[in-house]
Amino acid sequence: MSFSGAVLREIGRPLQIETLSLKGLLDKDVVVRIKATSLCHTDLEAVEGALGTPAPFIPGHEAAGIVESVGRYVTHLKPGDHVVISWNPYCSTCYFCQRKQRIICSQYRTNAAKSFHFDGAPRIYAKDGPVHQLMYSGSFSEIVVVTEECAVKVSKELPFEVACLIGCGVMTGVGAVLNIAELEPGGTVAVIGCGAVGLSAIQGAKLANAEKILAIDRDPAKLQIAKQFGATNTLLADENAIQACMQMTNQIGFDCVVESAGNEAAFQLSVEIVRPGGKTVWLGKVPVNEKISFRWGSLMGEKRIHRSSYGGTRPEIDFPFLADAYFSGKLLLDEYITSRIGLIDVNEGLTRLKQGKEIRSVILLD
Description:
Layout: E1 2-7, E2 16-22, E3 29-38, H1 41-47, E4 57-58, E5 62-70, E6 82-85, H2 106-112, E7 124-126, E8 129-133, E9 143-147, E10 151-153, H3 160-181, E11 188-192, H4 196-207, E12 212-217, H5 220-228, E13 233-236, H6 241-248, E14 254-259, H7 264-273, E15 274-282, E16 304-307, H8 315-327, E17 337-341, H9 346-354, E18 360-364
Parallel strand pairs: 4-8, 11-12, 11-14, 12-13, 14-15, 15-16, 17-18
Antiparallel strand pairs: 1-2, 2-7, 3-5, 3-9, 3-18, 5-6, 6-10, 7-8
Helix pairs in contact: 3-4, 3-8
């Protein structure tokens, strides 16, 4: 089988569309023909070299498609099934998996730096050798090879271009509120940073029946978009933000604060405006060796801080739940899509993402 994929050969160079092939498929592998994959900031970070992903590699991890073939030990999928890709394979048996912490599965973390299949071995090859897959996915390609757990079956009625969004950004934001914060109905939520993940946290708060949902951002245009996604209040991030938040909550603070901006000021603000005993969920990130300072008093009062990479997802449960919420009109998905492009346009799409011109650009594959 030969197929096309967007391959990065060297940091700082454009991705190239190359002809690829599969080798070494095993009995637990699932081959998926990708129909739609969206551009996420993590893909941009990888292409710019921030993640240390070995080259050559295929970016992409937020995707949906059709099962092309399955290994003989795959039990829950068959060719023709429509699936959303999860980027978190897990072994089910390690110390962390046994404690329901799949996101830090030992095998997942051990083999992550290799950027091949979950077992650490390559499946995708170019003419000159193996090609790495970003985040066990590499979905800027017509074909991906994943574990059974990472191909989550969804309704065939769900359009691929919105199905792909569920696989990362939407899940992470919604899950931050529903799975990590476990917000109770009538609670109050503040979301710092209104990109795709932050907008999803706003939607998670709406799904949780929050009474007050405050969107905070430096960009007034993003605050207007946040209203469309369910924010009841908006606030421009400036030197008066803490005072405004306390006034808004009768000097108590918010039950839950979701940080999704990924900068020091946002992290600092998140712990200043959460109430005593409340929960702050950090979704954004800075370079791993960068230090951030906090006013010690902002951490007092039994406040709880949780850094989450994937919103506590249980893909086999949460992906169908999000699909059902979309069908019932409780979850917006179409509204994330600001452009639809072809695989050949991937470099331009990444440039526009870096410039802040996109919420989600979706690559459609025939």
